[in-house]
Model the fold of this input.
Amino acid sequence: MKAIVAADRNWAIGYQGGLLVSIPGDHRMFRKETLNKVVVYGRKTLETFPLSQPLEKRTNIILSTNRSLSVKGAVVVHSIEELLDEARQYDTDDVYVIGGAAVYRQMLPYIDTAIVTKVDYEYHADVWFPNLDRDPDWVMAGEGEEQTYFDVPYTFVTYKRK
Done:
């Protein structure tokens, strides 16, 4: 299972329910990675999508404690165990955890690869992804060329669990 996330220098990922920055190159990479795959996320992340609808051309699995939540075009699960049971139907390399912070934290023990868009900037934030650079269980396995969106440098970095 993989995680895919954009994080700033401090591993911040969001503020007041939204992304810290919208980088077209990051969005293109996200689409390329997840198209025709399985995406796992929470209800709050769903609410950030256009019209609060599941992502097209992907299998959507939503983790929510709200037992009455029903989302057309998505499977809604209510526990990590239920999520893992649902995800077992798919190749683990095709399952991407895409947020938010609580879902990342809960799913990190089951993730073996993290694709991180590292944004070289410090944003005002209220949610963070675990700092994989400081986690002894993780190692940087690859790093792309630095790119720039306006004056904001960013790099695609792949981390692997040891």
Summary: The two ends are 14 Å apart (CA to CA). The domain at 2-161 is CATH 3.40.430.10 (Dihydrofolate Reductase, subunit A). The first strand starts at residue 2 and ends at 7.
